[in-house]
Amino acid sequence: MHYTPVTKARFRFATTDDELPPGRVIDIQRDPESPVVTVIIKPGHATQRLLDELSETQTPMHATGQWQRLEPTPENLAHPRRVLRASWRLWPREKMPAGQLCVPLERHREHVWAVLDREASDQLAREMTELVMAMVQSEVWITRGGGEGGEPS
Predict the structure, then answer these.
(1) Terminal C-alpha separation, the chain
(2) Rounded to 5 degrees, what are φ and ψ at 70?
(3) pTM across the whole model
């Protein structure tokens, strides 16, 4: 199967209940043949400001190859920059950089999105963590650095 490089991340609210799996507040729609990843969130679980900032932050990360999905070849499965763990963590204002609602943090084989706690629900952070963990475990994603570094405490 050919994997088209992802060059755009689009975060938006669900407009109807049937856009999300039953009982879930988020869905990630991606097709190996499409350059766009669309993240659909149930209204009330995030702010529009956060969705806008995530789209604006993640699109250049994909477009420049800082985050890249590769074909699952034996070589790529063993890539030293392959991400094996990913999550969302809610942080209080005092831990966040001034003026930012979200910030990417990277360590060896791990990627964390620190998200300002009042901008997203606990349920959204839990479900997003489940989805991105499943994504990095079932697909080959590599990172070329550029995050803030360090491990969230």
Answers:
(1) 39
(2) -115, 160
(3) 0.88
Other beta carbons within 10 Å of 113: 24
- Measured CA to CA, the distance from residue 58 to residue 35 in angstroms comes to 13
Residues 6+ apart with CB under 8 A from 145: 66, 106
Specify the amino acid at residue 114: A
The four Cα atoms 104, 37, 13, 118 give a dihedral, to 10 degrees, of -10
Higher pLDDT, 65 or 114: 114
Q: Which residue's structure tokens are 């550029």?
A: 146
The 3-state DSSP composition of the chain as helix, strand, coil percent (nearest 5) reads 30, 30, 40
> Running DSSP on this structure, what letter comes out for residue 82?
B
48: tokens are 């529009």
Q: In a 3-state reduction of DSSP, which class is residue 111? A: strand
Higher-confidence residue: 1 or 86? Answer: 86
d(CA 3, CA 107): 25
The Cα–Cα gap between 11 and 52 comes to 7
Q: What value does the CA radius of gyration of the chain take, rounded to a whole number of Å? A: 15
Q: For tokens 């360090």, name the residue.
A: 150
List beta partners, residue 114: 89, 103
Side chain identity at 139, as an amino acid letter? E
